Structure formats: C-alpha cells, structure tokens
C-alpha cells in the first residue's frame, strides 16, 4: 500500500499527472468514439431516430449524474483518507460506495416506468420519434446496473491512484459497444435487426462487460485496498462524507440535463433539424471534452491526497500543470471545429437543413472551449478538496441562470443563429465566477500550511 499511496506524495508532479491522467484520457477518448459511432449508426435509421437519440440525451445525463456524483464522492473520500494515512477508513468508504450504487439503481428502475413516454411527448408530436425514444431510453434505464456498479469500482481504483485498470474497464465497454452496435442495429451475422432497440441493448451489454471486469479486478486480482463485503460494517458517517461531495457533483451533472432539455424546447420551436444539430454537437464535442474529464480523473486523487496530507505546494503544482494541459487540448479542439464543421456534420448523414444550421453553430460554440477547460479543472479541484458544492454553484449559474435565459431571449429577438451565442455569454460568466471562488477557497482552506497561498502563486505567474 505504501508504494501506491506514496507516489501521489513524492513523484514529480508532471510525471505523476501524466502517468495517472493518460490512462483516463485514453479511456475517455475511446468512450467519445463510442458516443459518435453510436449516433452515426443510429443516423442511418433516419433523422427521426437521430432526433429521438438527441431528445433521450438529457435523460441519459440524469443517469450519468447519478453514477458520476457517486464516483466523485468515492474518489475524493478514498484519496483524502489515504492522504491522512487512514487505510481502514479508505477501505470502508469504498465498500459504502457499492451500497449507495445499489440504492441508486433501484431509483433509476422506478423512474424507468414513470418518465419515458411523458418526457418525449413534451417535445414532439411525431409518433415515430416518440416510439424510438421510449424504446431506447427504457432499456438503458432498466439495465443501468452495469454502468452504476462499474463506476463505483472504477472510482475506488482511481482514488487509490490505480488508473490503468479503470482505463481497461472503460475501453472494454466502449469497444464492446462499438462492435455490438452494427450487429444488433442492422442484423449482421444472422442476428435479427433490432433498430434503435439494438443500439440500447448494445449499450447495456457493453456496460455489463465493464462491470464484470471491474469486479474481477477489485475482488479477484485485488487492488491496494483489500475490500471484503462479507465483513462490511455500516457507518452513517461514511455515507454522509460520500454524499456531501457526491450529491453536489450529481446535481451539477443533472443541471446539464435540465439545460439540454431547455435548449431542446427552445430549438424545437424552430425545427427538428435544430434539435438534431444540438445532439450531434454534444456527441462530437465529447472528443474534445472527454480528454479534459480524463485529465480531471487523474488530477483529482493527486489533489485530494495532497490536500489530506496538507502538502499545498504539490497540490498547487498539480492544478497548474492540469490547467496548462487542459487549455492546450481545448485550443486544438477549437481549431478543428472552426475549420472543419462541414466535415464533422457529414459523418452523421446530415440533411441540408442540418448542414446550414450546424456550421454556424459549431463555429460559434467552439469559441468557448479554452475557457471551459479552465473551469473544468478548477471545478475538479473543488471536488478533490471536499468543496463540491462550489462546483455545483458555478454550474447552476452558468447553465440555468445565464445560458437558458440568454438562449431564449437571443432566439426570440434575433433568430436561431443567435441562440448559439448564449454558450459564449454563459461560459464567460461561469469562468469569472469560478476564478473568484477558487481564489477565495484556495486561500481559506490552506491557511497555515507550509507554502504561500494558491491565489498568490497564480497571480505571480
């Protein structure tokens, strides 16, 4: 255990961050590839199917919010306890994470019987779009256990500094999904063609493969924390500590679903093609944002460990290196979206109407990528320090207070093309807010530690 935990406190930060973030970035890139390929296959079923998938995305974000919040809570608590040299509490935190995962799955199953048809009917009168959407999301929700339990295990491993096994787990799921998609959607190799149901079945089947690998890695191969659910003892304090960080993170993710739902309503008043363009954008932008989220997964345990160890200089250096890396990636992403929007849209069998709307949308929204990179890294740092509610506040302001009202007003008074500028306005406000909060928090939580405040160091750079 000492070797694994000590590297987060002793290894040079650039090397450590590269070692821990690279596996997560690779896994996230493969996941992004799955998101795009999945939509490309579904688009071959027609624009109605692609629109249904776009409308289903907010519900998927809600499901993602459940397990991402859980994962962040586990990752943060495990890494902080290891930084405090409390291995027993770190192990107990990991075990409690699986208990919470089971509760979350039950909630999702209940929602699967209540939400889908009512939800899709709010956005369209097209019976085919509604039928496709209900078929897809119902299967994804009823069989969400694979993704939820896999995420719990992945977050446990990441919290200990183990990043290679989580990478393998996520790649198994993504690659499995890419392979199964065409087989089940179009009926290859003698398998009956199942259309959009096939896309959903491919998704949950691949998630179950990921879960099986994660369970094998944790309970059979063994990781640095020796989990044993047979000797599990319940501790309400552990639940609270996971929830204190995980719930704000989940709410922050859920805000993305509310935002996307609101945008779909606004865009639906213009055309179904506008809704499809937004769906395609969110699939494509995952290629740019997923590496940043992977970077965050690698950064979080380093920041959390050194926060628990009260080693401010290493914590600050990790944040600085992550910021530089994130901005570099985002600038490259902006270049791609600025110069190749038509090429990106053509991958999705886009109609002329989608092409006309999408080129302007992609060029406008991509202007904010570098700003978003900074916000994501600093929000991840809040979570690592146990201050996840601040990330939630920033997300609430950016998405609900600014983005949705701006999109509605711009669309109403200036037309569809103006809606996309709401992303620029909201990101500028969001970044300003996160910088103000980070400057204050970094000073307050590290007062009395061995190095000058992070606020001063950032300013000096």
Please sum up the structure shown.
The protein has 461 residues and is mostly helical.
Q: What can you tell me about this protein's structure?
A:
This protein is an all-alpha fold. The protein has one domain. The chain is 84% helix and 0% strand. Helix 15 packs parallel to helix 18. The two termini are 36 Å apart. The N terminus and C terminus are likely disordered.
| H/I helix tally | 19
Please tally the β strands and state the result. Answer: 0
Rg, Å, rounded: 22 Å
- Counting structural domains, the number is 1
- The rounded distance between the terminal residues' Cα atoms is 36 Å
- Averaged pLDDT: 85
Element-level helix/strand string: HHHHHHHHHHHHHHHHHHH
Give the fraction of residues assigned to helices: over 70%
What sort of overall outline do the alpha carbons produce when their principal axes are compared?
globular
Based on helices, strands and strand pairing, what is the structural class?
A: mainly alpha
Largest sheet: none
Strand content: under 5%
Low-confidence stretches: 1-5, 451-461
